[in-house]
Amino acid sequence: KVGWGQEPARSPTTKNDQIENLSIVVEGYGQQVLDSMRAQVSLNIRIARLSRNVKRLEALLIRANTRVAKLEEQLKKFNSKEQVKGEGQGR
Asked: Could you give the dihedral angle defined by the CA atoms of residues 21, 27, 29 and 31, in that order, rounded to the nearest 10 degrees?
């Protein structure tokens, strides 16, 4: 029969057992911390790569937009010359 404040009938845990159990728990937490730190580092590396890729794409987009603007300008000039030719032929 177990009264108040008494341990149930089982093998008593010594201080050493408690310390060992705690150290196992702490090791588990330590491993979780290491794992999450590793995951964070690999995420940071991936983010850095993505950031570099975004910058490259932005540079390519700027160059492409510049080319498009030049081509649009050439097309306007060409169309205005064709319009002048067309008016000249009509007379």
From this structure: -150
